[in-house]
Amino acid sequence: MSKAMRSLGIFGIDGRDDGAPAAPCQRPDVLRRKTIANNARLMIAVSVLLMPFAMWALASQAALGFAIACVGLGGGMLSLSLYHRARYDDAALSQVVAVMGSGLVLTLLDMRLADMGLIVIVMGPVLAALLTGPAVRLWSWLAVVLALVLGAAGALLGLPADLGLANEAMVTGTAAFCLSALLVAHTTHHINAGYVVHDKAQLNAYRHLVEHVQDTVLCFSTEGELLSASRSAETLFGCPRYQLTTGSLSERLHVMDRPAYLTAFADANQGGKSRSIEVRMRRDDPHAANGLPQFIWVEAHFSPIRDQMAGTRYEVTALLRDVTERKDSEAAMTEARHSAEEASEAKSRFLATIGHELRTPLNAVVGFSEMMTSGIGGELSPTHREYASLIHQSGKHLLDVVGMLLDMSRIEAGKFEIVTARFQPEEIVPACFAMVDTMAKARSITLNADIEKGLPAILADERACRQILINLLSNAIKFSHVGDTVTLVVKRQGQSLSFAVRDQGIGMAPMALERIGEPFFQAQDGLNRQYEGTGLGLSIVKGLAELHGGALRAMSEIGAGTTMTVLLPINGPATKLEETVAVLPLHREPAAAPINSWQNEKRKAQ
What we know:
alpha+beta; elongated; Helix Hairpins
C-alpha cells in the first residue's frame, strides 16, 4: 500500500502540496500556482467520479464518454505531475490542452455547426487567460478558429453523421462543458479571492507603516480637506489627532509662513507637482507655565496622488518632520560665524593700529641708532658704539616683526592687493640673495641657485614674489647648520613655476609638516627654544602664494633638511567674479527684505 501511495505521490494524490515556495513579493504567482494544483486535483476527482458511468456506457457500446473521462483524468494527472516538478506553465498548458482536446474530439464526431464541442473549446482560451501567458492565449484562440472552420466545413459540405453518436456527443459534451465551466469558475474565484487577501495585506502593511513612521503623515482630499493623520501627529502638534482639522491646521501656521504653505499645497493639489518647504507651526504644551504658544520649525513635503485624470485636482499626501533642532543649530552656527568674523576683523584692526603706532617710534629709534653708530653725532666709545649697534639691530628686528604682522593681518582680512605684471623669474634671484647675504655669511652658509634655462615670463606681483623668496631663504638659513649649503631651484612644472628652497638643516617632524602655514606656529615653541622668530614667515608665504592661485608644499626629514616649494601659475591668478565690475541694471530692482534670525522670529511669534 505504501508503494502504491508513493507511486501516486508524483501526481499529488497523497494531498501534499510540494510546490516551491515563493517570496512574499511574488504572492500573485503563488496564487496562480495553487490554483493550477487545485484545478488538476479537481479534474482528477471529477474524472474518477465519472469513470464508473463511462465504463457502464462503454459496456453498452458507447465509448465516447469513456474516452473523454480518460482525457480528463490523464490531463489532470499530467498537470499535477508537472506542477510538482516546478514546471508551472507546462502544468497550466496541459489543463488547457485537455479541455480543448475534449472539445475538438466532440466537434469531429458531431459535424453540426452548433455543437457542444465548440462550446467546450471556447472555455479553453478563457482558462488560458486566467492561468497562462500571452503565447498560450494566442495559440488557444487560433485553435478555436480552427475548430470553427472544421465545424463549418463539415456542416456546409453535409458530411454524413451518425445520429446515435451525435446524441452521445451531446450528452458527453454537456458533462465536459460542466467540468470546464467548473474549472473556470474555480480559477476565477480562487484568484480573485487571493487578490483581495493580497490587497488587504498590502493595505494593512501600509497602515502599519504610516502609524509607526516617525514623520507625521497627513492625507488631504481633492478639495483640501484633511482626511487622516498618523499617530505621530500627536507628538508633533501636542494634541490628539482627532482635534486636527483643516481649519485648525491652518491656524497653527505662523502668519508669515502661510503664503508659502498655501502656494506649495496649491502646486501639489492643482498642478500635480511635489513641493518641499520649511514653515513654523504651533505646538500645544498644556504643561507650559506661561501658557504662551510654542512655535517649531517643520519641514513639509507635499506629494500629489496621481491616480486621477489629468487636469483635475489631486489628493495630496503631506510628510511633516520636526527640524527645530537643525534650525537652532544653523542659527547658532551663523551667530558663531558672525562672532568669529567680528573678532577677526577686530584683531585685524588692532594689529593694523598697533603696527602703525609702533612704526613711527621704531623708525626714529633705528634712524638715530644708525646715526650714532656711524659717528654723525660725534665719536662714541667702543662700549657706547656696541650699545648703539644693539639698539639698531633690535629696532630693525621689531620693524620686521611689525611689518610681518601688518602683512599677515592684511592677507587674513583679504585686503592685501597684488599688482601683476610680466617679468622673468630669474631676475629677482640676485636681489633676494643680496638681502639675505649678510645673514648667510654670519653662519658661513653658501647660497646656490639652480635655475632652469628658457623659463617663460610669469604674470605675478614681483614684490610679493621677492617677499616669498626672502622668507623661504631666511628660514632655510636660520635652521641650517654652520657651513651648510642652501639651494634655490627654479624650474617649470606644467602650467606653473616651481620655486624650491632646499637646506641641510635640522628638518621637521611629520606632525609639524601638517601645520605648516599656520600663523605663529613654530616647531620649537617652548620658552627655551633655540631659534628665534614669530612663526609668521611661512604663513605670509602661504597667503601670498594662494593670492596668486598657487600653493605651498613642504618635504622634510628630521636631521636631513627641508625642502619648501612654492608653485605659482605662469599666467597669473584666475579672474574671480567678485573681482569684476558689477553691471548696472537697466531696471531698478526692489531691495531684498532683511532676514531675521530664528530666535528673533520665535520671540516675535510668542
